[in-house]
Amino acid sequence: MDTQNTVVEIGYYRWPRDLAIHEAGHAIAAWFFGNSQVEISLAGKGRIARTYLYGEVDECNAVAVWRVNYPRTADDIMPYHLSSTEKRSDLINQVSGAMVCSLAGIVAQSKYTGESVNALMKTSGKYDMRNVHNLIEVYRAAGGKDADIQHKSLSRAQALITLKWWDTIALAKILENRNHMPASNFQAIMGTIDSYSPKVLTLDELDELAGEE
């Protein structure tokens, strides 16, 4: 399967601190899941965000994009994705991590503003939830058994953002001063905030932090 790009969209009209926090949450989660090619872009007046990795993304006010090599919707699933127990397991782990990344923006914004996660899921996080629902379909198709994987993914995202909160704040402050952060800039900035070779977090580690059994 060709490498794809994943997009996280958010529906705001300005670039206030809570929007920067939201996008930083996505980017930080992606980084600590091993995605170094992350790009963040603020949309212009026409609500079109321009990126190098994904081209133009419309009907949004900011996007975080990164490369992925797994199906993002059930329609993207090819026979080879499900051709063995090992491939199914790999796909389940990949989309489980992707759900955490999709929810991390909502979690970060909620932690900063005090707004409820449930409320943000219907406003600034509505596109994120569309991604999550698509990923859940892939998770089920691959044989994922957790009946409440969305809740578990939310707990994982909360654990990740709590652990990396000051990294999220640091990235958000830098984001506020620019309308575009290419992947090369993101990597350099994360090299100063964290390190050039981050310790990748696992789902099991996040479950332990979240108190999941």
UniProtKB/TrEMBL annotation:
InterPro entries: Peptidase_M41-like. Gene3D superfamilies: Peptidase M41 (1.20.58.760). It comes from the Bacteria. GO terms for molecular function: ATP binding; ATP-dependent peptidase activity; metalloendopeptidase activity. SUPFAM superfamilies: FtsH protease domain-like. One of its GO terms (biological process) is proteolysis. Signal peptide: none annotated. This is Peptidase M41 domain-containing protein.
